């Protein structure tokens, strides 16, 4: 690995407020349709859960799993997590609960929580490519590798000075493999290299063709650049998008922080039209 890469100038945080985005409003309850007609689609990190220094440290606050389980009942099963994390990781984080989920930025999908059935779209990443990408972690202490099988994430939250060098190193490897069907996905202090054949949006489109999601009006809440593909398809699905922590193009409203999202979800249960339900 070329250590000169570390000498490159720092770049500001990749995720910044989109100045071109229109002014959005906080989210009133009335904007969301009745739960019996809705599909609730939720990003995890930075949306439902507070960001932490490392991926393993995230924590599900008391009450959130209960709220999600009650929303699952009230939507007749039409609540799904839509995450960059693998399904395996999602299940560990929310254990012992299982929720329908689109994982790995659209690479995996599971709908029925009492079933192992998973739609998997992503082939495993080529071993040699993964080995080369993994070597980028040697650029600096603090760079963490996350291997999802079909993709590899390089986390630099603990080594922010290495951001530019990581992206430069990934570019060099990609230049060597111009025909490889891979793409670089920038996230929050993470550079992920994944197969280019799927996105969160393709995962959500497929999810919305399946029962019990089919025919419902989705609302999706997400915080990151990787969520923008889903924001963009919500009008096609007669749905609504909401962002967290920043304004973004195409959203109907925004939340300041994950704690506001959690509070909002709990309030959805106050609807008197559902009063007889758990
Ligand atoms: O699509 P999401 O559900 O938001 O998942 C996005 C990525 O989340 C995780 O990384 C991020 O959260 C970590 C914990 O807060 C944080 O330490 C890291 O800097 C963030 O990038 C997860 O590890 C990734 O696999 C997801 O793609
Ligand atoms: Mg997120």
Automatic annotation (TrEMBL):
<dbReference type="InterPro" id="IPR036412">
    <property type="entry name" value="HAD-like_sf"/>
</dbReference>
<dbReference type="InterPro" id="IPR006379">
    <property type="entry name" value="HAD-SF_hydro_IIB"/>
</dbReference>
<dbReference type="GO" id="GO:0005992">
    <property type="term" value="P:trehalose biosynthetic process"/>
</dbReference>
<dbReference type="InterPro" id="IPR023214">
    <property type="entry name" value="HAD_sf"/>
</dbReference>
<dbReference type="GO" id="GO:0004805">
    <property type="term" value="F:trehalose-phosphatase activity"/>
</dbReference>
<dbReference type="GO" id="GO:0046872">
    <property type="term" value="F:metal ion binding"/>
</dbReference>
<dbReference type="Pfam" id="PF02358">
    <property type="entry name" value="Trehalose_PPase"/>
</dbReference>
<keyword id="KW-0460">Magnesium</keyword>
<dbReference type="InterPro" id="IPR044651">
    <property type="entry name" value="OTSB-like"/>
</dbReference>
<keyword id="KW-0479">Metal-binding</keyword>
<comment type="similarity">
    <text>Belongs to the trehalose phosphatase family.</text>
</comment>
<comment type="function">
    <text>Removes the phosphate from trehalose 6-phosphate to produce free trehalose.</text>
</comment>
<keyword id="KW-0378">Hydrolase</keyword>
<dbReference type="InterPro" id="IPR003337">
    <property type="entry name" value="Trehalose_PPase"/>
</dbReference>
<comment type="pathway">
    <text>Glycan biosynthesis; trehalose biosynthesis.</text>
</comment>
<protein>
    <recommendedName>
        <fullName>Trehalose 6-phosphate phosphatase</fullName>
        <ecNumber>3.1.3.12</ecNumber>
    </recommendedName>
</protein>
